[in-house]
Amino acid sequence: MNQPKRIAILGSTGSVGRQALEVIAWHPDRFAVVGLAARNDSPAFREQVARFKPRLAALSSPGENGWHPAETRGLGGAEGLVELASMPDADLVLVATSGTASLRPTIAALEAGRPVALANKEVLVMAGHLVMRAARRGGVAVIPVDSEHSAIWQCLRGEAPERVRQVTLTASGGAFRDLPLEELPRVTPAQALHHPNWRMGAKITVDSATLMNKGLEVLEACWLFDLPLERTRIVLHRESIVHSLVEFADGSVKAQLSLPDMRLPIQYALSYPERLAVPSEPLDLARIGSLSFGEVDRRRFRGAFLAIEAARRGASYPAVLNAANEVAVGLFLNGLVRFDQIPEIVEAVLERHIPVREPELEAVCEVDAWARAATHALAPVTLPA
Ligand code: MG
Q1: Could you give the residue range(s) of every CATH 1.10.1740.10 domain in the chain?
Q2: Closest among 30, 84, 85, 97 to 57, alpha carbons compared
Q3: Which tens digits make up the pLDDT trace of 282-323?
Q4: How far is CA 95 from each of CA 30, 71, 111, 178, 356, rounded to the nearest angstrom?
Q5: Which of 113, 124, 258, 337 is the one with CA 20 to 30 A from 70?
Q6: Ligand 1 centroid distance, CA of 73 (Å)
Q7: Cα 246 from Cα 149, distance rounded (Å)
Q8: Distance separating alpha carbons of residues 283 and 262, to the nearest angstrom
Q9: DSSP state, residue 296
Q10: How far is the CA of 370 from the centre of ligand 1 (A)?
């Protein structure tokens, strides 16, 4: 029997972090938790620490952290996250935060030679060149966690990269896929947070409704699989059963199918190269009956096209896109801008940006800060439809 794989999790109280701990609890003989990190202290985080007894427990907001069990050492602040991410006794670091705070810890983990299972797409969008360079330097892999990228990765196993003709990412269309277009300006945050297929965090659920999420995922796929943008496409697939497809030179297409349950791609990222049993319900295609596919409507889903345009421009545009979108979504969730203004604001910030080529970490952070300030400055205050 092998030693259990030792896992450190950044973002353990978020949606992916909690589901990763469920997966780990399914296989106590296969996985051990050596590090847990969250943004803030909470009863949920304390419960996780008490249950899994990691060697390190970090809070990115520094504060009173003297409550952990005897076998756990508490860390605080940005430095604590970096220390946890690069801890030598982790076999795999799961980066399960959303947003940009994980950029430095992700790079630190990779440079220290820790493989990273990356659920945070913002990190790759804003600084994919730095993340992949850190992986090359550390001689380790960046393992996809997102369902689409896990699907592509599984389809590519055993295949020659130069024989890939096209990669198709599927998109459910999110909360407003069937809403008459003229009603989009009046939707509320509560409506946007109601995803038809997936349970996920707030920011990504809104990104699914604008399809910005799929645009970010296209950029993520380009970095993870070294793909040119022209070889990617997005297709609407309401059922979220086919998680993505890869077409090869001979016209053959491979797809990966499963029920929309994030625990499945999370488990594959943790257990790779092995496949472990899961206690969840099997896929019953006869019961599902039919699967549908369709084109992506440019007027309804402007977010995806903005992301692809930012990728085409390259340089620091994707970092601006990412930051502007994160702020605009936050403003929408707080009732300060309308849903249909999210892409408008992001586009306006992109238009004002003076690009930086091949930005290093410091320049990426400066661009990020500029884009956040510019978004706040540009965002109109409460414009009722
Ligand atoms: Mg996804």
Answers
A1: 314-385
A2: 84
A3: 999 999 999 999 999 999 999 999 999 999 999 999 999 999
A4: 19, 23, 15, 33, 27
A5: 113
A6: 34
A7: 11
A8: 14
A9: P
A10: 27
**pLDDT score of 23:** 98
Report residue 246 as tokens.
């890869």
Q: In the chain, which residues fall in CATH 3.40.50.720?
A: 5-144
Computed over every residue of the chain, the mean pLDDT equals 94
- For 5-144, CATH gives 3.40.50.720
Q: Cα(238) to centroid of ligand 1, in Å?
A: 13
Query: Rounded to 5, what percent of the chain is helix, strand, coil?
Result: 45, 15, 40
- φ, ψ dihedrals at 28, nearest 5°: -65, -20
Find the 275 Cα to ligand 1 centroid distance in Å: 20
Kindly give the distance from the C-alpha atom of residue 62 to the centroid of ligand 1, in angstroms, as a whole number: 31
Structure tokens at 202: 């707030």
- Pairing mode, strands 73-76 and 242-248: unpaired
Instruction: Give the Å distance between the CA of 148 and the centre of ligand 1.
Output: 5
Name the more confident of 368 and 195: 368
Length of the chain as a residue count: 385
The reported pTM is 0.94
Q: How far is CA 320 from CA 47, 118, 257, 351, in A?
A: 37, 21, 33, 10
- What is the Å distance from ligand 1's center to 217 Cα? 7
145 CA distance to ligand 1 middle (Å): 9
Give residue 171 CA to ligand 1 midpoint distance, Å: 8
Ligand 1 geometric centre to CA of 55 (Å): 31
Reported for 75-82, long-range contacts at CB under 8 A and 24+ positions apart, including other chains, are 75/37, 78/104, 80/37, 81/10, 81/37, 81/105, 82/108
